[in-house]
Each structure stands twice: as C-alpha cells, then as structure tokens.
Amino acid sequence: MPRKPNFDRNDLIERARDLFWKRGWSGTSLKDLEAELQMKPGSFYAAFGSKDALFGLAMQKYVNDGLEHLRELADKCGPINALKQWPAKAIESDNAPAKACMLSKTLLELNAHNHPLAEQASLHLLKMEEQFADLFQQAQSAGEIDKTHDPLVLARKYQSDLLGLRVSAERDGINAQAIAQEIADGISRL
Amino acid sequence: MPRKPNFDRNDLIERARDLFWKRGWSGTSLKDLEAELQMKPGSFYAAFGSKDALFGLAMQKYVNDGLEHLRELADKCGPINALKQWPAKAIESDNAPAKACMLSKTLLELNAHNHPLAEQASLHLLKMEEQFADLFQQAQSAGEIDKTHDPLVLARKYQSDLLGLRVSAERDGINAQAIAQEIADGISRL
DNA sequence: AATATACTTGAGTGATCACTCAAGAAAGAC
DNA sequence: GTCTTTCTTGAGTGATCACTCAAGTATATT
C-alpha cells in the first residue's frame, strides 16, 4: 500500500560518507548534503533523522568497507603482504575524498566536545586495530613474523604509523608513498 | 596621548591558542573566545581583526613555543636524546589542551576548503620538520647516527610517526607512552 | 583642567545553522 | 476508481554564526 522511496539508500549513504570524509562534520552543512543527495529537508529527515545519525551511518560504511577491502587483500596475497601493501593503498587513490582517515578526522574534530560520534570513531578505530592484530597473528602462525612480538602491540603501532602516514599525505609536497614504503620495510624487519 | 589597552596581548594569544588547539577552528565560536578572553566583540575586533587572524597568531605561537622547547631540550641533552624524548614529552602533559598536534588538527579540518589557515599549518609543519632534520644531522655529525641516512628522510618519517602518535594519544584506552617508547627505540636502531 | 586619542561597551547586523511541518503527490490494496 | 499509506516539497522556525558601529570611558599630553 505505501509509496516506495525513489532513492537508493545505500547510494545516498556512500555519497554522504564521501562528503563527510572530505569536509568533516562541521564543514558539511545540511545545504551541502541536500545538494549532494538531491533531497529536500523533509525527505532527508524522514530518511535519516538527523545529520548526526547520517554521519554515524557514513562512518559505519567507511569502516565496513575498510575491513572488507583489507580482508580481500589478505585473502589474495596473505596476511603479511596485506599489511605491507595496505599503507600504500590507503593513500594511493587520487579521487578518494581525502588522504586522511575519516575516523581520525572525526576523532580530532569532535573529541574535545565529548560528541558521541567521536566515541563511535574511537570504537571503529579499535575494530580496525583488531583486524590488524589478527593479520599479525596469522603472519606469526605462518612463521613470517617472529612470535615473540605481541600482535596487539604490533597492531597498535601499525595503526599509529598508518594514521601518521595519512595525516602526512594531506600535506603538500610530501612524498607519502616513501613513508608508506618505510612502514612496509619495518614489517619486513620484524 | 592614547589610552593603553588593559590586557596583555601575549597572554590573550596564549589563551586563544589553547582554546583553538582543544576545540578546533569551527568548534571555537566568538562567544567562546569572548568568554575566555574576557573581551567584548568591539575590543576583540579592534585588537585582532578577525577570528582567523587570531587563529593565525595562535598557531604562530604554538610553533614558536614548540621550536623553542625542542631547541632547549637539545641544548640540555644533545640532539639524539632530544629526538628520543620528544615524542613522550609531546603527549605527557595531562593539562595540555589536547594530545594531538594543533597543526595537524587544523590541516585536517580546513584542508578540504582550501582555507588559508590550512596552508599556514602545512608550512608550520615543514618548519618543525626542518628542525628535526637539523637535529638528525647534528646526531650524524656527532657519530650517533649512521651517516648513510638522509636527515630529511629521517625527519619526514619522524614527523609522520609523531603525528600518528599524537592522534593515537587522543584515543581512550591506548597506551600512547608505549608507542612513544617504540619511536624512541626506532631512533636508537639507526 | 582641557583636549586628543585610543580603548571598551553591547545592542544589533544579515547570513547561515540544523531542523520542522503542513500540504501535495505518488503508488499499492481493494 | 477509491482509499490508505508513505514519500516529497519547500517555506519557515528559532538559534547561533562572525562581525559592526556608534556611544561612552579612560588616559597621556599640553
């Protein structure tokens, strides 16, 4: 009996994610979203409830896609090669919304205000870190990395390196791929 | 003949810096600044011209203080020890406005809008990097670091590590001091 | 004391913020 | 076709944004 919405919800969330990722939370106004999503305010609020709610969905998609891509990479070329290639892949795309990680951008922007989205970002970062730890452990099981290392410690440092790389990649005149290579080399030395 | 302002300009800039550092550019409203600086709008604009102008002065002070502290540390305990201790020092203070670097926060927040302050932040980061490179070179001259390394490359990676550390330090439940220690250990291995 | 020269005050500017809601339009059920 | 249910529209909400400016006040010079 009801009328169906004439949009693809998943597509809208992806476009919102790209906009939020690039411009940040306060840098993205509802007017921006209305223009990008081709929605009037009424439809927007009927569909998503609030700007924050959509931002939450956008971050969720960002993380899910990231976890999935990493898993695919690991399936294709093994855990240690995935970990080595991941940094370069994270910054290689020229048409990505931003070089920096959406989660770190959100955390830095909203943490001081104790905004719920900052906490969400923090939890998502932890989720990523757990997958890194998982890959480090798999690499240890495969005998590719010394087993005396704690995979959680390795993952924490790896995550930190990755975040630094992706901030550096936002800068002009910085050869970020060289930094990515150094991170990869660091893994080889473990 | 004129009346003197009844405030200490340098003190105002420091307090503005702390507020901007903690809350970011768009997270700090003029109302916030008026409250923190105890200034009415008229005085504020007479003294600083605009929010952006004050933000620029605040970043300038942030960098100058950073460069000076690093130089002092290097004078006190030598270039390589300064480089080793710096990461831990950057995140140790509990009453600092934020763990993350003000320059990286500004860059991430404003880069997508091509805001002049993002460019300023980028230049300031380069300035810091140059001082790091200088210390690496001094350490090489003193025979403390292998001379085959390019100090500019070392500095770039060091800066990236530092930025990552300071983003990680914003997260809850992360032992950032352990990451700082790993960065220091990395320098020892050079 | 008079004057000139700032500095301080705070109400007020238009613009934009996230968001609301009543009215109209579309599509499946009958 | 009619009804019911949902989606779409877009003008409009109060709040807040960075910022202005005319009037009042304080101080150094003469």
From TrEMBL, chains A, B:
Coiled coil: none annotated. Residues 29-48 bind DNA. PROSITE patterns: HTH_TETR_2. It comes from the Bacteria. This is HTH-type transcriptional repressor ComR. InterPro entries: Homeodomain-like_sf, HTH_TetR, Tet_transcr_reg_TetR-rel_C_sf, TetR_C. SUPFAM superfamilies: Homeodomain-like (SSF46689), Tetracyclin repressor-like, C-terminal domain (SSF48498). Residues 6-66 form the HTH tetR-type domain. One of its GO terms (molecular function) is DNA binding. The gene is comR_2. Keywords: DNA-binding, Transcription, Transcription regulation. The lineage of its organism: Bacteria, Pseudomonadati, Pseudomonadota, Alphaproteobacteria, Rhodobacterales. Gene3D superfamilies: Homeodomain-like (1.10.10.60), Tetracycline Repressor, domain 2 (1.10.357.10). Transmembrane segments: none annotated. Pfam families: TetR_C_13, TetR_N.
